[in-house]
Write a structure and sequence with these properties.
- By secondary structure, the protein is α/β, with parallel strands linked by helices.
- It folds into 2 domains: 177 residues, UDP-N-acetylmuramoyl-L-alanine:D-glutamate ligase (3-Layer(aba) Sandwich); 146 residues, Mur ligase, C-terminal domain (Protein-Tyrosine Phosphatase, Chain A, Alpha-Beta Complex).
- Helices cover 33% and strands 21% of the residues.
- The strands form 3 sheets. Strands 2-3-1-4-5-6-9-10-11 form a 9-stranded mixed sheet, sandwiched between helices. Strands 12-13-17-14-15-16 form a 6-stranded mixed sheet, sandwiched between helices.
- The chain is globular and about 65 Å long.
Length: 458
């Protein structure tokens, strides 16, 4: 039931959103905060789309939710989504406000909402999704997320009983959300030529979640992602309902089994993370009734958002911008592993300071010592430049990882750090940046490209 207070909150939020857009701001958070201030039960009263999809998890939720929105839109579905990643309470209230008229009527048949895993307890009681994807559950920011099992507990208590879950079968912490829920699983089989990684600093699943005996790993992809079983009680990682069986990044294709039947799908990216994200999206779409052929057709016209990864060619060299989520040891370790495995000689610029924290407090740098900087100690990586005011902290960590001192350079200015890159010694230059340093990364890239285009393009 809608009250006068609700309508006043709705109109105020609409007005705030219009004003912010006129000022060329995203208007992705503040309008919802205003609505909730004026009407604390605003989320329970606002009309919502008929079908609600939530996407949560430590890593990949923005990519998966945006990919799902693009794929659904490609099939003609009008989708309401928080594309800019405002995934906590105020952001969810904002996007739902955008989806209704001044009279409070919702104009969208479907919503795909990225939801912060820790904030889900504030959102899920009012925004009860019909489907919810959990990409994975890893360690994240120390001051916010504590331990992955703590986040699992929050989600377990918050996800409505009616919600059908789409869970990562290769992550036993994420799969532990299943409980009594109807569930569809996705995963990635060991791929041809894939090397196990058992030397990560952290692994958050060591013992059986059923009987607490030590697990036996059949294949460990990284950290606690892989296939395991318990020799004591018989517990084992489930066989995924939707499973990537093979990938050919050069051809841009992957083979995915739906209910055991293999199909070829386009692969919009070459990393293992891209394979997981694409498989997660495909699993959700099959839960919505799509056929594998429909998934493949729409994937052929959609890709990973450019703010996450993009390449620029300059002569025979490439400049790659790659999101390496700061204060997130698993996300950064995955990026470092991708860089070391990439072909050719590489130079790396790291600008990962959390500018969001810097504005109000101080970043906890303990996460650096849970991140596998050792992966950057590779002969193919010819130079590493650390930017930001914490560049000396990065240098210390890289030295402890065994990176040769002569390969290292530092600069406290993010953009100016690009001037130290010896691009002529590399085939590919990687610019690794945090969620809060994307603009600085773009500036660094412009400075680097200006140098490269003014110099030797050979």
């Amino acid at each position: 039931m809608k009250t006068i207070r609700f309508y006043l909150a709705l109109w105020a939020a609409k007005a705030a959103g219009l004003a912010l857009r006129l000022l060329r701001r995203n208007a992705s958070y503040t309008p919802g905060v205003i609505a909730l201030k004026l009407c604390p039960d605003y989320l329970s009263r606002i009309q919502k789309p008929q079908t609600m999809v939530g996407v949560t998890g430590t890593n990949g939720k923005t990519t998966v939710s945006n990919l799902l929105s693009d794929l659904l839109a490609d099939r003609g579905v009008k989708v309401l989504s928080n594309r800019f990643g405002s995934n906590i309470l105020g952001g969810i209230a904002t996007v739902l406000t955008q989806g209704v008229s001044l009279g409070g009527k919702c104009g969208y048949p479907m919503a795909v909402l990225e939801m912060d895993e820790r904030s889900s307890r504030l959102v899920l009681p009012y925004v009860q999704p019909d489907y919810m994807v959990c990409t994975n559950l890893f360690r994240d920011s120390f001051k916010r997320n504590a331990h992955s099992e703590y986040i699992q507990t929050i989600l377990k208590k918050s996800i409505p009983a009616k919600t059908k879950l789409v869970l990562n079968a290769d992550d036993l912490i994420a799969y532990g959300l299943k409980g009594e829920h109807e569930c569809l699983t996705f995963g990635v089989a060991p791929l041809a030529g894939e090397t196990e990684i058992r030397d990560n600093i952290i692994r958050d699943v060591v013992t059986c979640p059923v009987c607490d005996h030590i697990l036996t790993w059949d294949f460990c992809r990284y950290n606690h992602v892989g296939r395991a079983h318990c020799e004591h009680c018989g517990m084992a990682s489930p066989t995924p309902d939707v499973e990537a069986l093979a990938a050919d990044p050069a051809a841009g294709t992957m083979t995915v089994a739906f209910g055991g039947q293999p199909h070829t799908l386009p692969l919009p990216g070459g990393s293992i993370t891209d394979i997981y994200n694409t498989t997660a999206a495909a699993a959700l779409l099959t839960a919505l009734g799509w056929t594998p052929a429909e998934v493949a057709d729409s994937l052929s016209r959609c890709g990973i958002v450019k703010s996450r990864y993009n390449e620029t060619a300059v002569g025979r060299r490439k400049v790659v911008m790659y999101l390496a989520k700061g204060q997130n040891p698993v996300a950064c370790s995955r990026v470092f592993d991708t860089v070391r495995r990439a072909p050719g000689r590489k130079a790396v610029l790291i600008i990962n300071e959390d500018h969001g924290d810097a504005a109000v407090s101080s970043e906890n740098i303990a996460w650096l010592y849970e991140t596998d900087f050792e992966f950057l100690r590779d002969d193919s990586i010819v130079q590493i430049v650390a930017g930001s005011v914490r560049c000396q902290d990065y240098k210390v960590r890289l030295l402890l990882a065994g990176v040769a001192p002569e390969k290292l350079a530092t600069c406290p200015d993010d953009a100016a750090a690009a001037d130290l890159l010896d691009y002529e010694a590399a085939d590919t230059v990687y610019i690794l940046y945090d969620l809060y340093t994307y603009k600085q990364a773009v500036q660094a890239k412009k400075r680097l490209l200006a140098r490269m285009e003014g110099g030797d393009r050979a």
